[in-house]
Give the backbone structure.
Amino acid sequence: MSTLRMTSDLRRQLILSAAKRCFARNGFAGTTTKSVAAAASISEGLLFKHFPSKAALYAEILAEECEADPDLVHLLGMEPSTGTLVELVRSMVRHFMEITDDLIGPIFTGSLDRAVAAGDASRIGGEPLNLFWFAHHTVLMVALARLPAVPCLSYGDTGGLERQLCEFILRGIGLNQTAIASHLDRELSATPAQSIAAESA
């Protein structure tokens, strides 16, 4: 009985396919090389023969996805110039606006409507998507304030800042304190377990 040996290129593509599923399901931190190897039905050692680290595997996926985007390929092929700079910025803004309108907007407004219907939130303002932008800008401002190696403002521990920021945003978009405490405590209590899993990668 003869067995067919898989070519190196085919094995590499199967690993990438399995890794995409793992990263999509668990994120970068929640994915381990062991879980990718299991999803690809190979040993972790064989995975390392093709990719020296989880970061290298992720970088390869990002590179493939970028190559599949003709607009990005076009932008990367342009000569540096003022016109290129303007087109880069316009493309970036357009891309983010499309993601917000087409992908994030419906799930955000739908979830907010459900929270209001369940009595977990109050309707604030006339345009729900403005509340998404409120949340986005709040996070952005905190990120900007923390950009330097030594933050210009001291926020204390990161976990406390994360909780305060989440509470501020959730109150700002209309959620009541009971709903915030119930759901946020559940989300934040899941984080340490995910961190432990990520450290084992």
